[in-house]
Amino acid sequence: MTDIPTITPKANGPLVVQGPVRIVTPDGRELAVPPRKDGKPAEVVVLCRCGGSATKPFCDGTHKRNGFSDTPPATSAPTI
Length: 80
What we know:
This protein is an all-beta fold. The protein has one domain (1-28, 43-70): Ribosomal Protein L9, domain 1, CATH 3.40.5. Helices cover 0% and strands 20% of the residues. The strands form 2 sheets. Strands 1-2-5 form a 3-stranded antiparallel sheet, with no helix packed on it. A two-stranded antiparallel ribbon has the order 3-4. A hairpin with a 5-residue loop joins strand 1 (6-9) and strand 2 (15-18). The radius of gyration is 16 Å and the shape is elongated.
């Protein structure tokens, strides 16, 4: 694991955060990062971008079911 955090947005999915990070709420409370399935400390944190996760701010895979798209909406050209 690197000492420099990296954030990688996955297409139509979550943000994958690698490296040492602290997740702090707006009121200053630090959230515990869930451990890996084997109980060891997580080296990667996956954060929700779709807004539908039941475990916010962490991703629970809901983006696969709710149709989340990270494609920017098309803008219409002004009518002349």
